[in-house]
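Slack export, channel: ligand-projects

TW: morning all. Re-posting the request from yesterday since it got buried. We need the structure predicted with the small molecule present, not the apo form. The ligand is 2-oxoglutaric acid; the SMILES is in the block with the sequence. No rush, but it would help planning for next week.
GE: picking it up
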Amino acid sequence: MTARRSEVQDLARRGENTLAEGRRRLREDGWCVVPEVLSKESTAQALDHLWAAAAESERRGLATYMPALDPNASNVRVFNLLDIDPLFRDLIRHPTALDLVRSLLGEEFLISNFTANIARPGSQSMPVHSDQALVMPGPWAHPWAMNIIWALTDVRLENGATLFLPGSHRFTDRSQVPGDPLPLMQPFEAPAGSIIAMEGRMWHTSGANVTAGEDRALLFGYYTAPFLRPQVNHNVTLSAQTQASLDPPMRHWLGLEAEANVGLAPEVFAADGGRREPVRVS
Ligand SMILES: O=C(O)CCC(=O)C(=O)O
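GE: finished. pasting the full token output, ligand included:
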């Protein structure tokens, strides 16, 4: 783990993952880190808003501890970021995020979900999974899903960095996942303010936070090809007031317009691995 870990750290530290390099790495390696997407001030502001969103979620009766996901209550989950705070509606369409999304999924995509996981000291790993496997059955022949992970704190192995299985974005079938993948996994380490982009087929899990008092706060913007139904039904999770505030591109990306799957058949994607001309974005 140590040698691989310092390799990952070096990549982030040397700042090799500029956006162009990030696109290439995302496509080839299934992940990349783009540092300094948010300024120090914007990162701190987003973290403040995230804690406020966690409190608001609890106030609305949506628990921030999910026993089905996490072994103990040291993970704080916030599920309805898009409805709770306009700051997160801005982040989900941040130009750097959408650049990476389009580079992998093509011009047409849907926002599938936007959630947070704050791993507090004492938190432990959730089950290993790939996010594409959560929304479609195999074989997973193409990258049809991806996460833009926002680091709102520094992220490192000790404070519970997301662990990923290198090369697993090429797995087409669950049988290819090793029986005990954890010892083979590496941490996504990145400074606060970075984006970590991860292909939907990458098998991963949350790490254990073994620090005495250091939170690890990540936002997970999840995007898919437009023929995949979003993880949540935005028609239900977004209030009438929030929906009324959205501009046409956001309504389109959230699947709130009347059309669905018009001209977006998977066969169109199969021939070229996901790239095609846009149908339209108003
Ligand atoms: O928090 C993490 O590091 C990973 C979270 C995750 O994979 C999930 O919530 O599905």
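GE: first-pass observations. The chain has one domain: 2-268. The longest strand covers residues 110-119.
TW: perfect, thank you
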